[in-house]
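Title: Comparing notes on inverse folding

I've been comparing how different people in this forum approach sequence design from structure. To keep things fair, I'm posting one structure and asking everyone to reply with a full sequence. Here's the target:
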């Protein structure tokens, strides 16, 4: 259609498909332009529609609708829309996040400058919207050591190291399309049979090299490496080869990985009929070095560097013990896991090849305290060894600390008194329910009669669970369960945890004054400055002012702010932004800032479990964000933990 661009055609589709008038504000939101631009587009659309038997009806206060007065003429236009634009409509990026991903993937797909007018037209947006997206794209690309090169004639080009481009391609084209099968050939980016055959061919060559050189890597690493080889093959077609510095190349000189990398490059070149430069063999060697499992070497290494590493880890573990009451050094299995991983991690980061595992990336979302522990050790590792630890390596560390917390909880157990006011049979039923709900924990559960309460030694118990009120109990938590037959094991387990925290402490940590809404900032630096201003207004000293910090993405537009503070008391603070901002490579709107004092460590760790369950619940996070009041936050957290029927006495 002459005179109508893609955006105007999309406006026509939206009006036609809507079952009621649609406003200019709604159309502006959908297309990413201003209401003023929409009104201008409507005028252009109306003038052309006359030729096709239709017109736009504008009703004040209601919006726009389509009226067709010549069905035969309009059918020509409608057929054109259906064939050319109906399916394309589904692929048009709708949100800011989708537009950012679209731009990055577009720039990664070509090796020539992209015209910005064409790019804006493809996404159905105006130039100001495109420029806003490009600012966020630049922040994300910086994470991959890539940047945008603005050229003459209104075009942009993705610039930076070929190796980092490949890492970025793997992230945006493949890891973002991960499904429940880890095999590379099952990745959603490889739907065609021919591609699946090619992937299997590459994997067979890789597995052959691993076998011939007795190199062991994990199943995830095999799949990830296979995808990187597939990416390299496509890049070679554009004559884009990896460039390796002499300093990095020297790190694998004379190693088994160097020999295996050369063999892999030679076999791929022969199989696909290509000629490869030596740098690609080194590139494969670096992949092998970063992925190789070598536990024995890491545990027995007595070099100066490894001695420094042990000192750093021991120092961090001691700080965690003193502040959180978790002694990881005494858990030799976990300590060895962390030592082995960090030792290999530093080598990977020094050569620029961090480990990538889908499951580890999710670990930071599974346990907030474990993520805080991971950030603690990362602070010290980065400072001592001058490396940057990415979110994948952080996820691995969070996994180990999560296991440590789980083992600690299971080994310590609780001493629980069970009392009912309705007789021993009911007491036995309640006892059995609690025992089942707490299975796997090293608890001691004692069934007591009401007559024993007068002489009870409260110091022997962590909690009393009863079906009736117990006013004589003063110093330990009491969980009152009326109609306890209603509670399933999962809910009962959560109720016990909540009672251990205690209502008073629960509300003290999640105090109304610690929930901040409507922060206005556009960049990470502005966010930290605004948080410091808010904390300074509410505190008498400078202890709470944020100095060195890190921010970990948790999903659902949420992130965890971590520092190496040693607060006088535990706290949980929540900051909700007016709009999303880019931090590293994620769009963030809600910040969780929490830390612990040893005097309240047990309650703090339990409360973080409650926060974790809420943050993992997409619907309840969104529900809070729509109405970011303190009351709604508490309600959403309780709902996430199935606590609506809780009655707790402290």
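Reply #1:
Here's my take.
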């Amino acid at each position: 259609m002459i005179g109508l661009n893609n955006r105007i055609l999309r406006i026509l589709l939206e009006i036609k498909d809507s079952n009621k008038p649609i406003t200019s504000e709604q159309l502006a939101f959908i297309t990413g332009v201003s209401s003023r631009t929409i009104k201008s587009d409507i005028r252009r659309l109306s003038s052309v529609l006359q030729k096709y038997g239709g017109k736009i009806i504008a009703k004040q206060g209601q919006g726009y609708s389509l009226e067709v007065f010549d069905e035969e003429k309009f059918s020509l236009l409608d057929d054109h829309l259906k064939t050319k634009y109906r399916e394309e409509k589904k692929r048009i990026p709708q949100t800011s996040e989708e537009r950012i991903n679209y731009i990055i993937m577009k720039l990664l797909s070509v090796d020539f400058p992209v015209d910005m007018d064409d790019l804006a037209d493809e996404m159905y947006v105006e130039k100001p919207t495109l420029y806003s997206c490009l600012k966020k794209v630049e922040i994300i690309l910086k994470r991959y050591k890539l940047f945008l090169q603005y050229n003459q004639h209104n075009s942009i080009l993705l610039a930076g190291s070929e190796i980092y481009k490949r890492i970025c391609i793997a992230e945006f084209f493949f890891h973002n399309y991960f499904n429940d099968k880890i095999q590379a050939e099952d990745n959603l980016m490889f739907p065609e049979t021919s591609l699946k055959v090619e992937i299997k061919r590459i994997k067979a060559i890789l597995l052959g090299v691993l076998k011939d050189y007795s190199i062991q890597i994990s199943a995830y690493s095999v799949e990830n490496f296979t995808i990187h080889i597939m990416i390299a093959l496509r890049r070679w077609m554009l004559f884009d080869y990896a460039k390796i510095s002499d300093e990095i190349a020297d790190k694998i000189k004379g190693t088994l990985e160097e020999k295996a990398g050369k063999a892999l490059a030679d076999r791929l070149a022969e199989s696909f009929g290509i000629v490869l430069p030596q740098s690609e063999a080194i590139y494969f060697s670096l992949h092998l070095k970063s992925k190789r499992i070598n536990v024995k070497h890491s545990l027995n290494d007595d070099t100066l560097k490894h001695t420094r590493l042990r000192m750093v880890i021991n120092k961090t573990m001691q700080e965690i013990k003193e502040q959180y009451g978790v002694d990881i050094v005494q858990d030799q299995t976990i300590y060895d896991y962390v030592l082995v991983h960090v030792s290999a991690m530093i080598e990977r980061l020094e050569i620029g090849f961090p480990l990538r595992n889908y499951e580890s990336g999710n670990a930071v979302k599974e346990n907030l305290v474990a993520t805080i522990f991971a950030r603690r050790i990362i602070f010290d590792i980065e400072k001592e060894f001058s490396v940057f630890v990415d979110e994948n390596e952080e996820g691995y560390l969070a996994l180990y600390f999560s296991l440590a917390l789980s083992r600690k909880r299971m080994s310590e157990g609780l001493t629980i008194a069970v009392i009912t006011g309705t007789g021993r049979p009911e007491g036995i039923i309640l006892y059995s329910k609690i025992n089942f709900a707490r299975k796997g924990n090293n608890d001691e559960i004692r069934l007591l009669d009401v007559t024993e309460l007068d002489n009870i030694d409260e110091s022997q118990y962590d909690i009393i669970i009863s079906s009736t009120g117990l006013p004589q109990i003063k110093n330990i938590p009491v969980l009152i369960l009326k109609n306890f037959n209603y509670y399933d094991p999962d809910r009962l387990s959560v109720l016990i945890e909540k009672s251990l925290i205690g209502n008073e402490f629960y509300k003290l940590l999640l105090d109304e004054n610690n929930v901040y809404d409507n922060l206005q900032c556009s960049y990470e630096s502005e966010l930290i400055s605004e948080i410091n201003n808010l904390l300074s207004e509410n505190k008498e000293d400078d202890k709470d002012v944020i100095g060195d910090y890190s921010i970990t993405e948790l999903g659902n537009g949420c992130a965890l702010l971590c520092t190496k503070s040693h607060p006088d008391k535990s706290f949980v603070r929540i900051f909700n932004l007016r709009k999303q901002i880019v931090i590293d490579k994620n769009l963030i709107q809600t910040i969780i800032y929490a830390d612990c004092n040893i005097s309240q460590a047990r309650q703090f760790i339990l409360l973080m479990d409650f926060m974790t369950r809420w943050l993992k619940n997409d619907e309840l996070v969104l529900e809070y964000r729509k109405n970011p009041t303190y009351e709604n936050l508490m309600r959403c957290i309780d709902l996430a933990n199935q606590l609506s029927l809780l009655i707790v006495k402290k």
